[in-house]
């Protein structure tokens, strides 16, 4: 049997291009089978599955590169000697590729993020679903508009961006978030008299999760080594250049409840404002005095 295999082996060694195609095809088939087993029949891929899918892709890609390099080592060596004179031109032409590769090394050495983390790079925010030697793939999240849901868009970031933009790891925001919003009041009245009642209403909405929020806030402070604002709601009032009053509200709450809580607090504010300053508001029935932004 081994004697019958020798002619086949010699044939493939003489035809390296065909052997390379066969190797690549086998590795790709193996990767596809492994990925299929990892994914299974589930509709949504879990974070654990994404990690193993990314490891499989990166591992098979590395295996392909190593095997093909070893197969063509002699030819590559001869080619490298022949292009020594134009090495500078090659480096310049492949600058972006080199930056992507070194950016991947920088990410791995600094441990900036891992699969499943929420990150912000430049103007893009999202959850990391895959990363390799050249790029990082994220599912975009709408954070800049005070929302915390997926937009359905997938963004592929070249790793060279990590040298141009700071990478912000927002992973703790997956569970709890400091949610801030403003309410603008056009009519100049003493809003400080209703602040205690507003805080009481906010605390009532937060009763169901405040204990967990305090513990989670303590974990974040210990991990980050900084003194954070704390889990209790914060309300303060400022004025604009045009004389309008702005009520700033910040609360520490579960990320999936942030938008809903904001709507409840806005409703409470409108009701308290109406009850407290309603007499002045009735004078101008068709001219609303409160606007929200």
Automatic annotation (TrEMBL):
Pfam families: MS_channel_2nd. The chain crosses the membrane at residues 17-35, 56-73, 79-101. Keywords: Membrane, Transmembrane, Transmembrane helix. The keyword Transmembrane helix applies. InterPro entries: LSM_dom_sf, MscS_beta-dom_sf, MscS_channel_2nd. The keyword Membrane applies. Residues 101-171 form the Mechanosensitive ion channel MscS domain. GO terms for cellular component: membrane. It is found in: Membrane. One of its GO terms (molecular function) is mechanosensitive monoatomic ion channel activity. PANTHER family: MECHANOSENSITIVE ION CHANNEL PROTEIN, YNAI-RELATED MECHANOSENSITIVE ION CHANNEL. This is MscS mechanosensitive ion channel.
